Amino acid sequence: MESGEKGKSRGGVLFVIAIICVAGAMVAGCRQKEDSKANKVASDNTSQVSTPQDPAKAKEHFEKGVNYSLKKEYDKAIAEYLESLRYNPDVAAAHSNLAFAYFDKGNLDLAIQEHKKTIKIDPAHANAFYGMAQIYENMGNKTEAIRYWEEYIRLTEPHSLWWNKAQERLEKLKSEK
Predict the structure, then answer these.
(1) Cβ(74)–Cβ(65) under 8 Å?
(2) What is the predicted pLDDT for the residue at 52?
(3) Buried b vs exposed e over 135-163: b needs ≥16 C-beta within 10 Å?
(4) Whole-prediction pTM value?
(5) What is the pLDDT of residues 75-131, one digit of tens each?
């Protein structure tokens, strides 16, 4: 699938999501503490030491990823989000933004994987549900799209801009059934 029209259809969504996620990542990064897991040995056959968690480096790479996303340089954004996650793998906002970058590149399978990771880390991360709804709608899977739009609407401030957009998408899909 090409990124062309599918990625462009989101308009300013990425910008708003990125800004919201920056704040979320900053809060999450501040809450992260280095603990004994930070220096554990990888359990694979290579016995390499894992990367220590470093919220400051994670935040630095996350912000670079946001900047690249805003410039539509998605390959660079993906690299930065992956680097951010290397330093702090449990930040929902980084997984979510990575998912949107994959979506904009047309890689829906990886976008779904990252949104699912986001939801596993933070089941109330509304942006992941928005992204999943978009993906399933683009794939023509109305049932799943409706399910994710409904969940996004449940989690989002009623009558906000994005809540209204989700309501419109949901009503359109339900009327097409």
Answers:
(1) no
(2) 81
(3) bbbbeeeeebbbebbebbbebbeeeeebb
(4) 0.73
(5) 999 999 999 999 999 999 999 999 999 999 999 999 999 999 999 999 999 999 999
Mean pLDDT, rounded, of the chain: 80
Paired strand residues for 41: 49
Instruction: Calculate the CA 128 to chain-centre distance.
Output: 6
Q: For residue 43, is it within any domain?
A: no
Q: Residue 144: which domain range? A: 8-33+49-176
CA-CA distance, 87 to 3, in Å (whole number)?
29
Pairwise CA distance, residues 45 & 7, whole Å? 40
More confident residue, 24 or 33: 24
Domain count, the chain: 1
Which residue, among 10, 21, 4, has the nearest Cα to 131 in the 3D structure?
A: 10
Residue owning tokens 């990125």: 18
Reported as a pLDDT band with limits 50, 70 and 90, residue 51 is confident
Instruction: For 44-80, give the secondary structure using H, E and C.
Output: CCCCCECCCCCHHHHHHHHHHHHHHHHCCCHHHHHHH
Q: Does some domain include residue 74? A: yes
Write down the H helix ranges in the chain: 4-8, 13-31, 55-70, 74-87, 92-105, 108-121, 126-139, 142-155, 161-176
Instruction: Say which CATH number the domain at 151 has.
Output: 1.25.40.10
